[in-house]
Amino acid sequence: MTSQADNYQAENYYEPEKNIGEVVLDVRDLRTYLYTRWGITKAVDGLNFQVRAGETLGIVGESGCGKSMTALTLLRLAPKPAARIVSGEIFLDGENILERPENEMRFVRGQKISMILQDPMTSLNPVFTIGNQMVEALGMYYQEEQQRGLRDRAVDILRRMGVAAPERRVMDFPHQMSGGMKQRVVGAMAIAGTPRVLICDEPTTALDVTIQAQYLRLLKQVQAESGVSIIFITHDMGVVAKMCDRALVMYAGRVVEQGDIRTLFKNPSHPYTKALMASVPSMEEKHVDKLYSIEGQPPALFDLPVGCRFANRCEFVTDKCIETYPPSFANEQGHSADCWLLEGQSEWRQVTEAGV
Amino acid sequence: MATEGTVLQLPQRLPWYSVARLRHLTNLIFKEYPVVWLTILFLVLIFPALTADFTAPHDPLKQQLSKRLTPPVWDQTGDKPGTWSNILGTDKQGRDILSRIMHGSRISLMVSLSALAIGGTIGTTLGLVSGYFGRWVDHLIMRVVDTFLALPLILMALVIVAVFGPSFYTAIGVISVLLWSRYTRQIRAEVLSIKALDFVARARVAGCSNLRIIVKHVFPNVVNTLIVLATLQVGTVILLEATLSFLGAGIPRPNPAWGVMVADGRDHIASAWWIAVMPGLAIMFVVLSMNMMGDWLRDKLDPKLRQV
Amino acid sequence: MQRYIIIRLIQSVFTLIGVSIIVFSLARLSGNPLDVLLPDEADDETFIRISELWGLNDPWYIQYFTFVKNASRGEFGPSFKWQGRTAMELVILHLPATLQLASISIGVSVLLAVPIGVMSAVKKGTMLDTVGKLIALLGQSLPSFWLAIVLIWIFAVQLGWFPTSGRGGFSNMVLPAVALGWFSVASFMRLTRSSMLNVLDSEYIKLARIKGLPEWKVVWKHGLKNAAIPPLTVFGAIVVGQMTGSVTIETVFAWPGVGLLALQAVNARDYQVIQAVTMFISVLFIGMNLLIDILYAYIDPRIRFN
Description:
The complex is a heterotrimer of chains A (356), B (308) and C (306). Chain A is α/β, with parallel strands linked by helices and 356 residues long.
């Protein structure tokens, strides 16, 4: 397991001297449930985390574990009327945005918190030019300026996102661009309002492998220039290692482990995290007959077990795991995990109640 | 994650009377299985069409002038109260409306099924040929389709009937002529996408003849579309036949076609509303349930047809 | 873009040729058309006059060219039923009444159907949506001629709010316009709703919201322009549906338009008038579709540039 972690460190371009500031986003006990006609789906079920200025936080997990729903909830854009935020607080720059009236949310979206969507092919509106779509957004962020000035600004931002010949590109329609270029435009739109927090929901999964690395580097560069905090959603542990300062591991709507990237990779403490890391192919191990994969399926989010949600797939499962949801255990490096295996170990200290 | 449209299993612990279970049941009846629509179709269309000869209370053509313009049974107020022998009343020649509607079901069903069979066969064949062979064949056929779509259909039907005279067979012929182009368009589009798939190329490499490829490899893949299209069109065809009959260009009198009956009742709408209203209701119920059946089938078999 | 328009234009010309062939050959379906098509009371003189006008003694291809030549100048010959008038005159004479009815019913149905369709997609699952769906369902299953009769029965006979038939003031127009527009409201609304639902599900709508656009702009700018494409493609068909639907509606309401003219012409076997009406409506439809194709390219850049 350690060899795996070292392997990530080798190709990591994590910069330890990075300037990380005060807490920008503070999420407490966030729960988003989907009320479908078949029952209640607990897509996000008690999330706690903080993001600091200039920091990159990874959210990792299998598909369907609530990552994307978390992202949409942070923007208060979870699909209505099915989705409801049933509890929690989202402090963005000290303000609980859940208390804002809906029609004032638009001053938060784009300007304080923004998002890059997964699929660049479908996330630009096909019937408007790039320029039109950029200017429309900029017009809301900088109300006093003339149309002309907004267009110059759009060109400028596109250039910052690495779009070649942006003066001509603003006249183009989305279908005239390549996937990588479109994703740069989407990124440009996301940073146009100089948000404090930028959510990237698997921004590179739909791109070519060669473009992926370029795009990630670009995000890093934007972050270094503007000091924006990034929440990076992915299922790829490799990308987490490259991009993030800290990471949350989500499973079935809950955070099962979180911590600093180094400690997380050196010392994964939840069996799910261990399994996730083991399922990434390694460059070092020469003779791999079969890629490790986690047996079984995550539980259906509308019919969750009372105990640990990973219990049915866990190698180390005990009766206690099935009966009671484990509490969080934390160590001194700020690393924490929800697992009964950590109970009684000297460096781990229980921080929450069991069975919540 | 639960997405709308997927049937998830209901948690077993809920009691049968819970809201979730009742809603589950209504969903099953209306959305998962179209029980209501099938029942209406059976009662108004299929059952009478098959059995009108011995289940209809009266001869649909027998005139009884003494009973003329009897209102439906629930209307007891006028000087001529409704009777149980003519539940839905009688028309101005004293013919029983219920019996006429029941016999009319057979006409509607026969005309629509025959026209669909003929129009569908022609349309599908041309669509297969057009899509499979492409090039000038495709261009030619598609221009013909465009031409037919550009013609004012009801007017053309009127002209054809004016030339040949109204009859059961003319009605079927006219409606088939009006129908085929829709099939050709849809099937052609379908074939174009199927043609690009590997198994067609493989069949060609294996030396199959064009005819064999079309019949054995392409056609089975458009059957679902065909079924959905046909079901969705039964309603349209019934409406078309009724409209033609109403204008005197469909089924000739004194046959009890629904459109003819509405036309008969038109002049008496002020004094005897039931003559026109009753057959119209029959048309409405049948077309409505047919459309619902079509929607249901489409969702089950061929969701991509949604825009049609 | 130019290439696209030129291709469409050429296709339209082919369609026009097809229509003319069909209209031409319909009259010749059974031997000498004059035997079938002339009214019984037509005398020998008309017989010879028409024979010459149509060039019935020539081979068929020359006959066809004569037909096309005359048709292109709007000459379809004199009417039999309405003595002293040419077929084209009659069509032009009856056109305003039909256009008035059709434009009002199309206008009202677009004005009704688009907002209701959009709102019922936006407010999916609410009362509004249910009502919208109900209207759409009924609209597609109610026979328009029956609806017309029922409307007369309820609103003209029982309530006495509107006249039963004829053309006159505004009150004369209400019932026919409703009966004629009912179907198109339903099909427009259904199409708008379903395409709007697809669009609202899309990522670019999500992105528009993420950018912080106000909701009305998300729906009516980003949503509607994309959602308008499928309803637009059937607009031409619906307009022609109104023209042919006017045959039944105008008959029921005795509305003196082209539809009524056509039915009377068919009943009187006045084939000159029938040809004129058919060609006229077809040309209208083809022109309409050409216009829509251009409009379509204007809305959807993917077509404009390919």
